[in-house]
Amino acid sequence: MNTTKKKQVPFTIGIDVGGTKVYGILLDHDDIILARAKKKTKEGTPEAVLERIKTLISNLLEETNTELEEISGIGIGFPGPLDPTKGIVLEATNLPGWDHFPLTQHVSDILEGTPAFLDNDVNLGTLGEALAGAGKGASNVIGIFLGTGVGGGLVFNKRLFHGTSGTAGEIGHMIIQHGGPPSPRNLRGSVEGLTSRTAIVQNIEREIKNGAKSLLREPILSGKKIRSSALAKAFKQGDKLVVRTLEQTAEFVGVTVGSLINLLAPDVVVLGGGVMEAAPEAILPIAKRVAKKIAVPDAWNNVRVQEALLADDAGAMGGALLARQKIQIFADEKNDK
Amino acid sequence: MNTTKKKQVPFTIGIDVGGTKVYGILLDHDDIILARAKKKTKEGTPEAVLERIKTLISNLLEETNTELEEISGIGIGFPGPLDPTKGIVLEATNLPGWDHFPLTQHVSDILEGTPAFLDNDVNLGTLGEALAGAGKGASNVIGIFLGTGVGGGLVFNKRLFHGTSGTAGEIGHMIIQHGGPPSPRNLRGSVEGLTSRTAIVQNIEREIKNGAKSLLREPILSGKKIRSSALAKAFKQGDKLVVRTLEQTAEFVGVTVGSLINLLAPDVVVLGGGVMEAAPEAILPIAKRVAKKIAVPDAWNNVRVQEALLADDAGAMGGALLARQKIQIFADEKNDK
User: What ipTM score was computed for the predicted complex, to two decimals?
Assistant: First the structure.
């Protein structure tokens, strides 16, 4: 392997494997995305996903007139429990056949030995935002993603922090209202139980069933799935029930953010995910006001709380940046010897 | 400076400056405390504290037949806001004359240039426990100290984590029961407002004024200050009000610990401070049971939750270990060049 050449052209590829699509980017050394590509995940077996990754990468290389040997590494984001050190997917909640699948080994094998790295999708979304999105230039960044559930990630000194068990960043399972309303995992008052889209929709549904008026009344009573975009539309139209519910959600987000600022004193807290992308103006101002009240002044004066900037690119961006970091660490260790 | 010799005898001294006493230890390279010394803080001006530090160190050296040149560094723990990087005390809540006092510079000056380092007392207590106490052998350790207030510290990869503003570890100011009872800093439901000795005594006092029976009835109604030892004594005698109050406190401690395990996935959570030292059996079993329910299984299976082991030595131990770490980093950087 010609490491000198690789160091001159440290292009990397990031792949975000999701339940519905596999999404990839090719990143240059200045954090510029040179190309994007995506494929439907479909059957989602390891073989099918590997095939899609291979095709995606071919597309990215073709589109940019790049050779595979100019790619120094590939970083892959995957949902669900995995071992990032060994590059093994432990299981995949919504995809079949992934029990202890050595994903990075297989990806590397089908791509002429190009090094591959693995981490979970939320961690990589946080890393992407931290280094090339909302947190650009910062060292310590917390990512909070409000969607069906609530995911989180921690970047300290520009690196992902995994903790001892590898599970660090489970912000959704922190308790912010002990004794509060029921939450997932038989808890009460967890961040996820108070701020996920699932929780928001459940609150709206309950009030509607109790007779509250809302633009969402008909779709909810007819059993339609309420997406973040529908919430955002109703919010923008001034729907009182939706406005009130999102304001309450924002308050809980603020409590979470304020507590995390006191604990970790980061440069940036990035808020992302479907709920935030659909209606940042519903969440961000209230969340900041509440967080400011909780945070100790020194920490507050050194932090930015802001919305995510990379949208669909975040996870793949994090993958590409993870690959670059790992290759760099590898090169540094080699030089030390 | 003979660095080769210093590396052969990396003895360090740790000093813990408190509101009532200045406490010091001399530590050998195997984490053995060779000597302890203490002095009353008394007037507490910088000049007086410096004089006491000088005397303490003389005592430590004499007792162990050690020369000052055999000491590679001195680590000092100090209460209140400070700048650890510059070694400057920003202010001291209960001591006069400390506004922006460059403590490490002065300590180094009166000790023939021996390098001195500074951090806050709770951080150093956590570092001491993490590396040489309850967390010995671990990489990632969270310290929670329940006393008049609630202090916290974070050790990641065997190093103190300060965050961007330097204030990281303010566990006492995290919110675990949004909308809950009043807490310090005009908050509601903060860890400090629910688990400090101050909160415990206030709860007991309120119930006694409402007519509850308790062994603490007479001392509380006569305005006596209730210390942790008095709480522990009443608990051991089965005082129902005290038992109930400490059980409730323990539940809140468990909520805090469980949430922190989900966020940071540490090896060890160390519980210390006056309340814990007086009656660990009142807090620890319930806190562990509650934390286990909250923690995600992978993180729980990799963590130990246990009481602090070093008692009064913790802060000074952390100081001595901080000095050793800093000297080591300095030596490594020099070798790299």
Answer: 0.95
